[in-house]
Amino acid sequence: MIKVENLYVNYDRKEVLTDVTLSIKEHSITTIIGPNGCGKSTLLKAISKNLDYKRGKITLSDKDIKKISTKEFSRHLALLPQNPQVPGDFSVKELLSFGRYPFIKFGGRMSVNDYKVIDWALEKTDMKGYKCRRVKTLSGGERQRAWIAMALAQEPRILLLDEPTTYLDIAHQFEVLELIKEINNKMNMTIIMVLHDINHAARYSDDIIVMKEGRLVKHGLVADTINKETMESVFSLSGEFLEYGDYPHFIPEKSHKR
Description:
Layout lengths: L1 E10 L2 E11 L4 E5 L6 H8 L7 E6 L2 E2 L5 H5 L2 E4 L11 H6 L14 H13 L15 H13 L5 E5 L7 H18 L2 E5 L3 H7 L2 E6 L2 E7 H4 L2 H6 L3 E8 L2 E9 L3
Parallel strand pairs: 3-8, 3-9, 6-7, 7-8
Antiparallel strand pairs: 1-2, 1-4, 4-5, 9-10, 11-12
């Protein structure tokens, strides 16, 4: 599916990713965690072709992504960035039409099939009743579902989400993460996302990528990556883990940051 090999990324001569190598499992939910500024979003941007890299290689189905045209790449992968901004006063249905861009020929118009896909994406995200609403009038959770619907309208094999629960209250966080899990389960879509909440990552992920200071620290199953050693060495936190169902729940007790 996606392979990252010996990846280095610089910002203004500062190295922000150093020798990152990993593989993403197909049909899984992989979550990237780590402290602020550790390179989580940078890695996501590099994978999505939204950021060039100094050296290394990223492949999609064994093909170098630099050799795949942007339009062709968009038919395989969709990215929902942090705090996306809708241009102008668009309706939800108009917003979703942007997701059909990779399938429309230059100077062409949307086809009957394009509108069918938009209706399908609205249905999958439970947004059909909102299609005529202006995006700016939606609640935080509704707006995030609309953006996810737009990403689904691209019909991607892979969905990238950069902090999809940012600025949402706890109810809307749960709503969005449950939707992401449902998309993965029902559509077999490969999902890669960045999350800050460790307990959300433990609950909704198959695999975890742990980063610190631009380097890959751990990559594996939840049980092998979200544990006391990770919390202390990466996040400088001590605490206890409660076993709740199929995933651990971390209760922080003390910070060791200076």
